[in-house]
């Protein structure tokens, strides 16, 4: 690389550093056309300088190699709290002003760029959805590399340059994400180029990877399957030359790997540079550059401390802004020579605004797979097994588009979706043996025993404009609670930005759920993810509890077509009565909740409402109804089933919410309601506490009781079995007379009989195992 | 090692394998004294055979080395779903029958051991709290190594042998836990001996680490800081010999390391053995031993399939049970020769029943650190900074006992607890540089940027009988939602087992909370951990929201002394008005909720109740009260503050819950209640929906609005600012007349004035920043 090119890269880097520091400190006088004065300084100094110069260094060098080689690069900023860097670079390359014309690429725009940063009404301090070119916020650390691999899947022409901070590298999710290379097909997928940025420090501590011997670090990265190249130092000229050479080498190596079929050892870069590089080396006699003290704002109290103010001015002038910007603040034309062509600018890549690339998922329709239901509740099927067949067809229909993937922590077969293996396999780039099944170098299913990695790869895949499904045991989806939070927050902001186009929803299929983890025991029993999801913005989250096979197909069909949501589907894999035929299922799911007339005998005037949400509760409610018909035939019972949990809320709280009139029409305003719910019962109260009939609502659900036992015993332990529901009715419906007491005792006797049988025989009574509605 | 010894280990291993398979299959005929018949077989075959023979192999060899060298070993079973192995081994060594005398070590006991496994009313299929010698359930994978390191801290004589499953090894938390060696002091702490068990498969897939080249695996483990030794094969005799040698070597090496002060490279073992080793090699023509098909029950349908029944019998007889057990089922005396002495048996170690070792934490009392409060709300202090001083004294008082540690993801100083560094440092075994501060080889603070690792190490530390605190940013504690679930489930079961003695509570201090992450923005704003915690059993969970410094001291003092709970304390680090002097604080915290008479003017007859929980809401409620005194002096306002959130529930729901009469006395039965709450508002509804006055309750809280802005703007964005609270009152208290409309408009104007100022100046108005109550 020529010296001129290196000088250009250095100038570009200085410009980005100047613009970064300017954002943290200045609300006026952006070009330092007058001596810096306290009134030019922001009252609250917020931002993270420490990681920023390193990010700027990488970005400038990537620009050079993109320009020289016409590459397609997506930049993932692991240390996303270095927001000023990405804002500076996108402004410099022009993409920021194209996205936000009110922040033009001139002096006025520079003032706005500076002022808006971390300023009320302005832009966040981190790389948030507002930043062009980003699919990754660095607020909560650990997910950059998973996002990068997700983005690279099925994008053979793409290189995802992923900066991994050395703080972030200590997190669990990041530590296991290195292994994702074992799922990347060199020919059919893109490349991920990890750049481990060792700047040595976190908030107040050194980082672990910066403080182990070189040999150990090198072994670790080789052990993860990479061939690391090192760019280490603090002298800019030497660092520029090394970085440029190394980048050329790794791009060559990526091209070489993509041209062979050998098992790849992917290249990566270790950049060891000072934290807060080029910033103040000392402040008040204490070292800052190259230490953790550079993490956020290296010079504090600048408004009130004249010496700090002078130090800031000299630091900023040290970048020689007059060489970098015209008198009106426009970047000098020579800097533009480093900027890649229009869409190759990293702030302009459509991969970071996936909605631009999104193609509708081709759907097979649900009728081909629907279960035939001649009489309600007389046949059985395994809902997720049937769904697996529909997903198989989704895979087939979208095979050419290569736009749909299923992720899971080794549970796709356990969750009975294995029909998908008729047409695809599990992507796998490690060794295979003859006993292996369905492992292929290029498959639509990605399985790795890390819910974090599954979630992160799926997020990266979706945000770059593709479709997908995460299937998981219900209890263990809590492992990604925090990742869900961050994705839901991202979507909330994303939806408000007109330039960000809608992306496919993040779909969770939670199976092997709380009621059927009787065999694995208490640790596997937790329906609380639904509660967790409900805390996020109503415009983003949806929760579905289809009670049988055809409703599951209808819900899944809807969710896979939807955009910009997080959809949670909880569905069983075990044999379940088929309640609704396909037409009824579609209608019921469209309504989200409704009266099951065929199971009711209330003739519009119920004595009691028996409501249910979830497959296991629905069986118990129907079984209770059958018991009531036998023992209290004159009792008018209405059965209400809820598929779309959000329907229970008022329409003022959620777009799917029911108006009071509609709710009252289902649940009455004055009759007892016994509600059997899949999860923790208090959620139903939370959703309905403003309804007229709330005081009559009695909810049964999972109350954190369980062990290794039988499915029916799980219901009994949690007081949600059919007999208990009948007792609840007897206790709450007035005027039942002496029959009530006898029925109550009979139900108690039944519970005792089951209890004794189960403990004697180790399984449920045949009358439960073979139960049907009619 | 002699051939006799190897034969003994093999016999012991066969016995454990026999007992393991017996548990999975048999409900009767445990000694195969008659031909195996369908009625001897359990109706539901539940359990995990695959990992079990490997666990038995390791356990037997550890017995040998413990016996030979008189070691103190704690066994951590990463693949805890291999429950049969630990049950078999503790029964064989006698500790099971000592713990559960109804399962004696004879033929009758063996029948009970078999029958109870995964059987209703029996014991869970995983290594649950019911298993003697265990601190770790393997239900949710990923935490074994973190638990092991936590157990090893401050136990210099202990070796924690931690079996890491190769499935588990794919998880994020496990992947980063390898680094925990960088926090272990070879002299002052115990040793952790990781045994990576590569049996090659998960549920339906090969494991990653079993399918990478040997060199890559070796590099990975060396990169993590270990010197791996390999025990690989499937031929028992050779494997026994190798394992025995390797174990002798690693124990020698551990002793050598503990005798030097060099930076250690700890030994570890890689055991590569077939999944389902010694089980059926083929079933129905398909390979099983050594494949994923051995994961759970290798032979299915044994009751109904005579050929499988015969295969099972021949498999079981292959262990030659008549050589292993007397005619009455007692293990033969020669097996006893391998069992270590009483308390050295791994099922008997007191470290796995930490309550036995627990010493009360010496507490300094809160008065020495309490803030002087002469007049309510006129001075300010930083609650967590003052708490830091109390924690410093806790550290000093318990320095000799070495029984208290603080864990955190690099946020201890950020959370302003840094007074602790006056007397201790951050434990650190990697390189140090001159700029570093507080890094020491032997410190009471453990900081690593992995919330998973912090939580896991703390759990291990507590369950082995010590005390601790986890301090974390509030939003990111969601990262360990799932780990909290598992620990709370563990505690629920632990509390029911009389032989398990109480352990110290798991204490969370969540600071840098939602209302003061204005600078970091939306990704850092999430108060939902409280909601998550509330789903677990009432007897285990506690949540405290101290509104100021002295209440924080009182709450922390209480939590640190408590046993068997999970305590969540949410407290601010920023300057907060001092509301209560130390006596008032203790009284208020003891009550958990109460009327603040000094802030009320209701004279027992309020027109409105203003309630608050949390420090930021308390300030706004008091500020609203002040506005009301100015603008509506005749309005009788009662201020209620809630510290202990559980008080809001009925006493039927939680041990801390208030009876209705008490609740009504605070909140009235008929007056409007405006409740400003720290977190998501619906939680307050969930806790109070059965109260008489619930229909009058209006809750303000965080509703998922936020960005990088000012603290007061955060309140305005979420409608919890003082002006909005006054508007809420005006809108809800009847009969205020025309003054109400004027006040409403005035409050709107104030909000607009603040909004405009903040957007103009980038900071809050001085009247907010310097606000005091009086």
Automatic annotation (TrEMBL), chains A, B:
Keywords (A to Z) from UniProt: Lyase, Thiamine pyrophosphate
Database matches in PROSITE patterns? PHOSPHOKETOLASE_1 (PS60002), PHOSPHOKETOLASE_2 (PS60003)
Which residue ranges does the record assign to the Xylulose 5-phosphate/Fructose 6-phosphate phosphoketolase C-terminal domain? 573-773
Cofactor (UniProt): thiamine diphosphate
Gene Ontology MF term list: aldehyde-lyase activity; magnesium ion binding
Which residues does the UniProt record annotate as the domain Xylulose 5-phosphate/Fructose 6-phosphate phosphoketolase N-terminal? Answer: 2-356
Which Pfam families does the protein's record reference? XFP, XFP_C, XFP_N
Stated family: Belongs to the XFP family.
Q: Which NCBIfam families does the record cross-reference, listed alphabetically?
A: PRK05261.1-2, PRK05261.1-4, PRK05261.1-6
The molecule here is called Probable phosphoketolase
